[in-house]
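INFO  loader      accepted 1 record
INFO  loader      residues=297
INFO  predictor   begin
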Amino acid sequence: MTRILLQLEKATNHISFKQIAITMLVLKLIIISYFAYLLVGEVTNGTLNFDSTFFIFMGVGFFAQVIDGALGMAYGVSCTTLLMNFGIPASLASASVHTSEIFTTGISGLSHIKFKNIDKGLFFKIVITGTLGAVLGAYLISDYFDGNIIKPYISAYLILLGCYIIYKGVANKSAQNKTVKKATLLALIGGFLDTIGGGGWGPIVTSNLLSQGKDPREAIGTVNTAEFFITYFATVIFVFFLGVKHWQIILGLITGGALAAPIGAYIASRINKRALFFMVGTLIILTSGYTLYKSVF
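INFO  predictor   done
INFO  writer      dumping tokens
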């Protein structure tokens, strides 16, 4: 494993931030063009229907983006928790969240590249295994795992994640910048659980990097930029197996998230982060606990 990591570092040394940004823009252009093509077909055939539930999904996206903008994480886990609480199957919730995240993480990643908030060596260590884990998780939840059967397990996972978010807020540890250990394995697990659970890449990977003493600016910037590729290729798998038939959810999440982006940034500059961690963790535990109760009983 050490030899592979050394070879990877050597092979990626010549890749610049500009080349990473261009790759992201090209991938975004491809997926936007494909979605636009599908939307035109839906409109032409008269099958693109919206009802009042669109505003529910827009509210979910708005709420989740406010949290993510203030914390730098928890968009996926917040969205998935709320969608499942509204009765959306686990696979559909995860697919919708990851599709909408292509747009939010793309903007975030490009911003971090512009301000050089990235550890390039760490980026390539986590982006490859993180993507592999996400693709595997998306494949399993799309084609093998039954949504109703897996829902209690996803809810239990989200409850644990909520507890972990509260712990991170209470602990509020700070440390000097250090070399990160086992980053590739951490990214593999984080990517897999992110698509299986519909969220968790940020809370799992970012929190672990910070707990190891990684500089917060580089940890958040690197993880957020890598997240674009994780969500992008996970979405490709979801689209291949599930298709794109959930436009109300996707467009609702994107619209709500876009409206909430400046609000989240404002809250980040005003609210006490420890209090926000506690509130978010508590909300996730309560809503996931309710979903778990409904699934089991």
